[in-house]
């Protein structure tokens, strides 16, 4: 199933495709969905063009998407509206190259979305898990099989080892800082 021309990543995979005009974009139908974590601590709204029944939800095979259970849609940053202070309540997990923040609820653990803020050159938005959309039927959606392992293979197999890697880096950094700034005894 090919990406819809309004999909934020469409041009990345179809560089020769013509740009949609603003007039064409204005004629397209959109829909806004209320979303949030399981416990209700984090809430937000997502506007999608086209609406979810016409959208191709990405079911990626990379290690993170598989572990988090992500089924992703890709709204631009301006199309995600956080309710109250929900954005500041999110916990963050970074792995491997640490270029993307994986946002989740610190209370119930719901995997919410991926923040692509450090990917501005390609896409300034989020990969939002449709599992967080209230009142939708996942079986009624159209899915695109993602091949994240092909596009961004892991540097090495990190399964079950990311904490040890991060802890080793933290300890090395801490030791280097102590060496650079000796503390009085």
Write the layout of secondary structure elements.
Layout lengths: L9 H4 L8 H6 L3 E6 L6 E6 L7 E4 L3 H6 L3 E2 L6 E3 L3 H4 L1 E3 L7 E4 L6 E5 L10 E4 L12 E4 L2 H4 L10 H19 L5
Parallel strand pairs: 3-10
Antiparallel strand pairs: 1-2, 2-5, 4-9, 6-7, 7-8, 8-9
Pfam families: GFA
Organism: Coniochaeta pulveracea
Protein name: CENP-V/GFA domain-containing protein
Structure in words:
The protein has 185 residues and is of the alpha+beta class. The protein has a single domain, classed as Metal Binding Protein, Guanine Nucleotide Exchange Factor, Chain A (Beta Complex), CATH 2.170.150.70. Helices cover 23% and strands 22% of the residues. It has helices spanning 10-13, 22-27, 63-68, 86-89, 148-151, 162-180; strands at 31-36, 43-48, 56-59, 72-73, 80-82, 91-93, 101-104, 111-115, 126-129, 142-145. It has a five-stranded antiparallel beta sheet, with no helix packed on it. A hairpin with a 7-residue loop joins strand 6 (91-93) and strand 7. The radius of gyration is 19 Å and the shape is globular. The termini are far apart. It holds the Pfam family GFA. Belongs to the Gfa family. Residues 33-164 form the CENP-V/GFA domain. One of its GO terms (molecular function) is metal ion binding. Keywords: Metal-binding, Zinc.
């Amino acid at each position: 199933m090919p990406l819809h021309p309004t999909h934020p990543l469409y041009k990345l995979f179809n560089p020769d495709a013509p740009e949609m005009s603003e007039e064409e974009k204005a004629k397209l139908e959109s829909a806004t969905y209320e979303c949030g974590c399981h416990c209700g601590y984090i809430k937000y709204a997502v506007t999608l063009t086209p609406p979810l029944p016409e959208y191709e939800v990405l079911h990626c095979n990379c290690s993170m998407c598989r572990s988090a259970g992500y089924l992703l849609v890709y709204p631009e940053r301006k199309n995600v509206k956080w309710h109250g202070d929900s954005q500041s309540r999110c916990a963050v997990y970074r792995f491997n190259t640490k270029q993307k923040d994986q946002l989740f609820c610190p209370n119930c653990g719901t995997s919410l979305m991926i923040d692509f803020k450090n990917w501005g050159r390609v896409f300034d938005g989020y990969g939002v898990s449709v599992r967080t959309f209230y009142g939708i039927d996942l079986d009624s959606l159209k899915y695109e099989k993602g091949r994240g392992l092909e596009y961004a293979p892991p540097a090495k197999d990190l399964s079950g080892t990311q904490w040890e890697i991060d802890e080793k880096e933290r300890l090395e950094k801490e030791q280097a800082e102590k060496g650079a700034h000796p503390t009085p005894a």
